Q: What sequence folds into this?
C-alpha cells in the first residue's frame, strides 16, 4: 500500500513563543480532559504526524516450542498456554543492523520515499551490535540517507513508541519533515538460555515506519511514562566498572525478569494509559478500529481487551509466530496489518508499548 500519495505539505511555520504557549495549553487541556498530567493532544497547529509506510524483517530461522523442548526442560503446552507464543525467529547470520536496514528499505518503498528525503532516523533498541556507532547510524550509511541525523534510544519495549513521539515532536516543531523510525532487536544474544522462564518468551527482528507531517490524518494523542523505581523487575546488566584502579572479572549479564511483577504492571498501566490517550483524542474505546499493542503475552492482551470492554478481535496478534521482540514488536505488527490490507486511511488505531525501565507509551492515530 503506497501512502506516499497522501498529500505532502511544507514545513509548519510556528514561532518558538507560540509553540511554548501551545505546549502549555496542551498540557492544561490534557489535565482538564482526563485529570492526569502528561497526555498530549496533537494536530492543532494544522500538521499531524502520519505513518506513510511500514516495513519489517524477521530472521530466516524459525524455532518452534517443540524445538526448544529438545534443548531445555520445557514444552509447547507450557509456553503456548501461558503466553500464546508458538514459535519465534532467531538470528544466525543476521544482525540488529542488517535486519533494520531491510525493514527500513521496505518501509521507504511502501512510503514511496527516497533516502535523500529522510531528515531523521531514530532507532529503539536494547540490543544494538555496537555501543557506538549507533545502529541508526549504520542504517543511515547502508541506505544512503545522507541528509539525516541518526541516533538510537533505549526505552526497551516502548522504544518504537518513544521514537514515534520524538519524531512527532521534531515534526510538530517544524525542525524536520520526514523521519524513519525503527524498533530492532537481537534479543537472543542477551537472554540467558539457561533460564527457561525468560528465554522462551523472546525473539529477534526489526520493524520500521516512515512518518511525515500531514494536513489530514495522523497522530491525535500520545501518552508516555517511566518508573525507574521498578527497573529491577526487568533488567539486563551492562559492563561493570573495570579500570587500572579496580580490576574486575568482566562478565556480561543477561536479561532477568520477575514475570509476575511485569505482568501486574502491564495489566494495570497499559489499559489506563490507553484509556487516557483515547480520551485525549476525544474518542471512546469503541471508536478505535484496532489496538496494535506490544506483543509480550496473549494474556496481557486479553486482560487489556477485557478492561477496556473491547472484543479481542480488535487486538491483532503477531506474538504467536514472533514471540516478544521488545522495541520491534509494535512496528512488525503494524507492518503485518498494513500488508494484510487491514488499515484504511482515516481508521482509528491505538498503539501501546510497555516494558523495561519501566517504560510505557500509547498513541492514538488516524491511519
Ligand atoms: N517451561 C516449563 N516450566 C517452566 C518454564 C518453562 N519455560 N518456565 C518456568 N517454568 C515453571 C517454573 O519453574 C514454575 O515451576 P514450579 O511451580 O515448580 O516452581 C512454574 O513453571 C510456574 O512458574 P511461574 O513463573 O509462576 O509461571 P507464571 O504463571 O507466572 O508464568 C510468565 C510465567 C513469564 C509466562 C508470566 O509471569 C508472564 O507472562 N509475565 C509477563 C512477562 C512479560 O510479558 N514480560 C515482558 C514484558 S515487556
A:
Amino acid at each position: 500500500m503506497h501512502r506516499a500519495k497522501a498529500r505532502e505539505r511544507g514545513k509548519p511555520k510556528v514561532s518558538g513563543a507560540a509553540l511554548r504557549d501551545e505546549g502549555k495549553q496542551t498540557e492544561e487541556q490534557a489535565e482538564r480532559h482526563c485529570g492526569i498530567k502528561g497526555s498530549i493532544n496533537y494536530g492543532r497547529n494544522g500538521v499531524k504526524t502520519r505513518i506513510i509506510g511500514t516495513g519489517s524483517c524477521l530472521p530466516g530461522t524459525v524455532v518452534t516450542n517443540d524445538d526448544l523442548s529438545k534443548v531445555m526442560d520445557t514444552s509447547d503446552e507450557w509456553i503456548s498456554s501461558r503466553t500464546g507464543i508458538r514459535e519465534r525467529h532467531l538470528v544466525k547470520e543476521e544482525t540488529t543492523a542488517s535486519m533494520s536496514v531491510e525493514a527500513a528499505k521496505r518501509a521507504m518503498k511502501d512510503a514511496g520515499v527516497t533516502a535523500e528525503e529522510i531528515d531523521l532516523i531514530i532507532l529503539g533498541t536494547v540490543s544494538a551490535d555496537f555501543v557506538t556507532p549507533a545502529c541508526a547510524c549504520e542504517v543511515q550509511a547502508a541506505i544512503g540517507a545522507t541528509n539525516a541525523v541518526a541516533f538510537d534510544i533505549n526505552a526497551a519495549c516502548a522504544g518504537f513508541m518513544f521514537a514515534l513521539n520524538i519524531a512527532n515532536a521534531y515534526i510538530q516543531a517544524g525542525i524536520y519533515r520526514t523521519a524513519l523510525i525503527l524498533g530492532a532487536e537481537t534479543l537472543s544474544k542477551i537472554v540467558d538460555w539457561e533460564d527457561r522462564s525468560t528465554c522462551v518468551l523472546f525473539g529477534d527482528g526489526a520493524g520500521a515506519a516512515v512518518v511525515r507531517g500531514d494536513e489530514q490524518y495522523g497522530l491525535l494523542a500520545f501518552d508516555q511514562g517511566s518508573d525507574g523505581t521498578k527497573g529491577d523487575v526487568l533488567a539486563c546488566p551492562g559492563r561493570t566498572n573495570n579500570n587500572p584502579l579496580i580490576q574486575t572479572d568482566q562478565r556480561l549479564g543477561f536479561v532477568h525478569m520477575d514475570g509476575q511483577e511485569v505482568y501486574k504492571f502491564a495489566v494495570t498501566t497499559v489499559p489506563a494509559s490507553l484509556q487516557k490517550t483515547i480520551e485525549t483524542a476525544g474518542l471512546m474505546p469503541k471508536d478505535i478500529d484496532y489496538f496494535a499493542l506490544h506483543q509480550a503475552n496473549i494474556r496481557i492482551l486479553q486482560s487489556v481487551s477485557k478492561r477496556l470492554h473491547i472484543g479481542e478481535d480488535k487486538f491483532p496478534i503477531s506474538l504467536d509466530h514472533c514471540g516478544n521482540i521488545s522495541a520491534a514488536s509494535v512496528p512488525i505488527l503494524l507492518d503485518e496489518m498494513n500488508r494484510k490490507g487491514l488499515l484504511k486511511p482515516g481508521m482509528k488505531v491505538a498503539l501501546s508499548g510497555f516494558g523495561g525501565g519501566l517504560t510505557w507509551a500509547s498513541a492514538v492515530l488516524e491511519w
